[in-house]
Amino acid sequence: MRKDFISPLAFSGTFFLATILTFTTGCSKGASDDTIAKDVQSKIEADPVTKDSPVTVTAQDGKVIIKGTAKDQPTQQRMEQIARDEPGAKGVDDETALLSAASADNTPPAAAAAPATPPPQPIVVPAGTGLVVTVDQALSSKTSQTGQTFLATLAQPVTVAGATAIPKGSSVTGTVITAKEKGKIKGEGQLSLALTSITVRGKNYSIETGTLDSTVKGKGKRTAATTGGGAAGGALIGGIAGGGKGAGIGALVGAGAGLVGGALTGNKQIEIPAETALTFTLSSSLTLPPHASE
What range defines the domain where residue 74 resides? Predict the structure, then answer.
């Protein structure tokens, strides 16, 4: 029986040929994937819908892989369609992310609307409020002049709704409305006062108050009245006859009360010593800025 003999040379040639075919097939396959990827990339960059999308395209065994971002879902779908239509493509793996979705994910939740804080309201000191002041200098029906300005200091704080609107110690300015010396035989002495302004925390405000009037008639008979600005009363506390500086300080009377007469000295003039306490009543309200209260 004869056996076929295959020469080593023939075997080697066959093996070499098979190796070359395998290598060539592999190279051809790689080139095909590369071609697919390049074609799809070019088409995406040229398409009006997808041209602005930052993506990269690769292919593996005919499967197209798209990575990057798409501005919206229609753009994403268009890129997938271009890849499917590519000759030789066997499938599409779309790994792109939507920019709109990313933006939505990064958008912080809307902050809960904070309740609106009402703006602070001005402080209104109402008409009828009493201002207790101490005069800084002596006033007299004999020595004071009509139209003369006098200074005083707020002796008691003024509060509105439980808060101090005008602090104690605030500077006050007043005017002598009438000053008339009493004659020795006949005629009457008169002294009328009113406040015109007040300084609150460094800012000056005009005010209107009722007028405090005191009269001394011929034989020493005294009368008193509160005029100007309504029914609310006030008190004018004069120095006690013979008393020194500051004598007679003290009284705040209610609405409708009369003015407690002027002090009498030896010559029966109306005298108001320095540091005398006087109570005036606001005839018009006073509006202060919100920060003025404490």
Answer: 12-101
Is residue 249 within 8 Å of residue 279, measured between CB atoms?
A: no
Model-level pTM? Answer: 0.50
Cβ(164)–Cβ(158) under 8 Å?
Answer: yes
Do residues 281 and 234 touch, judged by C-beta distance below 8 A?
yes
* 3-state SS, residue 8: helix
**66 in the same domain as 163:** no
- Please tell me whether residues 87 and 211 are part of one structural domain: no
Which segments of the chain have a pLDDT < 50?
Answer: 1, 5-6, 9-13, 15-16, 20-30, 185, 220, 226-266, 292-293
Domain check: are 92 and 132 in the same one? Answer: no
152 and 235 part of one domain: yes
Instruction: Read off the CATH number of the domain in which 53 is found.
Output: 3.30.1340.30
Q: How far apart are CA 2 and CA 15, in angstroms?
A: 25
Alpha carbon 56 to chain centroid, angstroms: 53
252 and 155 Cβ atoms separated by less than 8 Å = no
Residue ranges with strand state E in 129-261 = 130-135, 139-140, 149-154, 158-160, 163-166, 171-180, 189-200, 203-206, 211-216, 222-227, 235-236
Secondary structure tally for the chain: helices H, strands E? 3, 19
CA nearest neighbour of 184 among 142, 243, 138: 142
CA dist 40 and 46 (Å) reads 10
Distance CA 204, CA 113 (A): 40
Structure confidence by residue, pLDDT tens digits, 121-139: 899 999 999 999 999 999 9
**Coil, strand or helix at 99:** helix
Give 197's contacts (C-beta < 8 A, 6+ positions apart): 172, 173, 204, 205, 206, 207
DSSP E strands in 46-129: the ranges are 55-60, 63-70, 91-98, 123-125
